[in-house]
């Protein structure tokens, strides 16, 4: 059985930065609602909204002080209901970001817990005796100090591996589990279609609190292999429980942030019997250089690591990583733009659910933010190493060339990227050659051509520098294949009568050729067809079997003739 998330294109919204409806400089739910048609225009049909729960905002919502509400800066539960209804009317699903590894230190549970050792909430969090020294080498990664923070009232230390304001739950405690399973059901009841699970593989820590061994990697590991403060095997039991509840609530999706430098570990979070998370985030593309070969190796490795029946996913950017248009910038603006188009074509045509990050569709980049305007605790702590902070990938969405970029009538909470006057949705909207138009065309094509969402994938060895693959639906089975075959056959100028006759047999194949190099490359292909979409060629053009000369950074998608 197909599930909706397997066909979906997700779009991540960082709510503070997407659209501000009330002029306070911070995005909100009404703002998101007012821009849903933009999301539809991309062919995206599912949202992941970063946390909107009440929060003291020490980590901008990733420190929750009430798991059942909406922070007033984003709106209220009525606004939320209105957003869900408006999204549903447009066929858009909504996944929330559940931060269940830790709460805010201002959450009433923690306020109670820290008040005395005998408080019933005390065992909901993780404590050690304060002997004057932390019990191990675990780090608070946004503070670069120990993860064990003093609590004078009880003479103990509590665990916070992000900031001291994010005390961590003891997920071995059945009461904590029950509380979160109830919270999940509560949001399902309000029409939420699933959750992105924040740092899901951190829920369980080593019972003996052993120190992490050394790792040569500074970022993001802080020179430690996270063997003991994350990635404990007992976490799978929790995933199985959550999965059962999600399935019982009917077609809800669980997407785990599985903290992955390790793709095998991430893949294992789907469960051996595909009975855990529906998708574990595949972050491997975030670490790849600009290279056709590197992306291919990464994708193939991910497919191979997934257990039977598990569904892949890909992403190039998110709120914790430098935007990919910036990471893959070329020597000229044109080259940067061309690479962004190529990256989008790859993301939206590989086999697996793509996750887009707001603003990538207009090629938003990263820019250094002056020290006094930094907001991210990590950026403030690691200043002047600006690439470690995360503010630069969270700057407000650039809707138009007006003073607040169409994002806000007030002073935006983070400075706009100074390129907003030229790089914005309004400017790119009417431009057939713009990146935005390219994303929209890819989104339309993905919906129209079934092989692109459901087909198998086969990589082709053409030439160094060219990423090439076929997406293929096997023929002769059901309406989908027949419709695909019909479209394909029509494109190949086959007479209508043949199309009807073809119902029993033909397959539909979309071939994707992506030239990652900045020079022309002759690629030998064994099959011709008709162009569906291309950066250098028009729809409907014929491609002959034999050598195809791909221009610099050319993306070419064509349907194979049979
Ligand atoms: C995840 C989030 C990140 C947050 C951290 C702590 O990694 O993506 O933004 O700061 O968890 O909740």
Structural class, by secondary structure, is alpha/beta
- Described by the principal axes of the CA atoms, the overall outline is globular
Q: Could you estimate the helical fraction of the residues in percent?
A: 25-40%
Q: Indicate the multimeric state.
A: single chain
Low-confidence stretches: 476-505
Q: How many β-strand stretches?
A: 21
What is the averaged pLDDT score?
A: 93
Proportion of residues in extended strands? 15-25%
Placed side by side, the strands forming the largest sheet appear as 11-10-9-3-2-1-13-12
Instruction: Give a quick account of the main beta sheet: strands, pairing sense, barrel closure.
Output: 8 strands, parallel
The Rg value, from CA coordinates, equals 24 Å
Any descriptors?
21 strands, six-stranded antiparallel β-sheet, 17 helices, alpha/beta, eight-stranded parallel β-sheet, single chain, 562 residues, globular, binds alpha-D-glucopyranose
């Amino acid at each position: 059985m197909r599930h909706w998330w397997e066909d979906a294109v997700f779009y991540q919204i960082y709510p503070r930065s997407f659209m501000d409806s009330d002029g306070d400089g911070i995005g909100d739910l009404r703002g998101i609602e007012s821009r849903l048609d933009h999301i539809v225009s991309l062919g995206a049909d599912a949202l992941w909204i970063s946390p909107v729960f009440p929060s003291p905002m020490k980590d901008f919502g990733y420190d929750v002080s009430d798991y059942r509400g909406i922070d007033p800066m984003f709106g209220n539960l009525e606004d939320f209901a209105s957003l869900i209804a408006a999204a549903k009317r447009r066929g858009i699903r909504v996944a929330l970001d559940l931060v269940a590894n830790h709460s805010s230190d201002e959450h009433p549970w923690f306020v109670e817990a820290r008040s005395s050792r005998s408080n019933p909430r005390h065992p909901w969090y993780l404590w050690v005796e304060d002997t004057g020294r932390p019990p191990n080498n675990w780090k608070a990664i946004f503070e670069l100090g120990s993860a064990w923070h003093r609590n004078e009232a009880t003479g103990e230390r509590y665990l916070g591996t992000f900031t001291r304001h994010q005390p961590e739950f003891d997920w071995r405690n059945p009461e904590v589990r029950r509380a979160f399973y109830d919270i999940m059901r509560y949001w399902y009841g309000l029409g939420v279609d699933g959750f992105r699970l924040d740092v899901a593989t951190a829920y369980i820590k080593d019972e003996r609190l052993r120190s992490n061994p050394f790792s040569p990697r500074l970022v993001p590991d802080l020179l430690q292999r996270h063997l003991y403060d994350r990635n404990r095997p007992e976490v799978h039991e929790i995933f199985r429980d959550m999965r059962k509840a999600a399935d019982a609530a009917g077609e809800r999706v669980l997407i785990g942030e599985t903290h992955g430098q390790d793709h095998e570990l991430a893949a294992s979070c789907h469960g051996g019997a595909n009975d855990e998370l529906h998708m574990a985030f595949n972050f491997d593309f975030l670490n790849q250089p600009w290279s056709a070969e590197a992306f291919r190796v990464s994708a193939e490795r991910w497919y191979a690591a997934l257990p039977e029946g598990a569904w892949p996913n890909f992403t190039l950017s998110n709120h914790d990583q430098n935007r990919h248009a910036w990471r893959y910038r070329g020597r000229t603006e044109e080259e940067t733009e061309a690479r962004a188009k190529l990256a989008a074509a790859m993301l939206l045509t590989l086999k697996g659910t793509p996750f887009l990050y707001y603003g990538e569709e207009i090629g938003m980049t990263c820019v250094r933010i002056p020290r006094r305007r930094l907001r991210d605790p990590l950026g403030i702590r690691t200043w002047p190493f600006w690439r470690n902070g995360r503010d630069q990938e969270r700057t407000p969405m650039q809707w138009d060339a007006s003073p607040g970029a169409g994002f806000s009538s007030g002073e935006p909470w983070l400075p706009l990227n100074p390129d907003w006057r030229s790089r914005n949705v309004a400017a790119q909207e009417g431009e057939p050659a713009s990146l935005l138009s390219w994303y929209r065309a890819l989104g339309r094509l993905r919906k129209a051509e079934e092989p692109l969402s459901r087909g198998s994938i086969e990589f082709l060895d053409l030439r160094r520098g060219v990423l090439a693959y076929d997406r293929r639906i096997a023929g002769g089975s059901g309406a989908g294949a027949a419709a695909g075959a019909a479209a394909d056959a029509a494109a190949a100028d086959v007479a209508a009568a043949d199309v009807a006759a073809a119902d029993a047999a033909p397959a539909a194949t979309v071939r994707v050729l992506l030239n990652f190099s900045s020079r022309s490359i002759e690629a030998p292909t064994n099959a011709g067809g008709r162009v569906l979409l291309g950066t250098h060629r028009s729809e409907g053009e014929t491609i002959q079997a034999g050598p195809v000369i791909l221009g610099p950074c050319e993306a070419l998608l064509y349907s194979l003739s049979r």
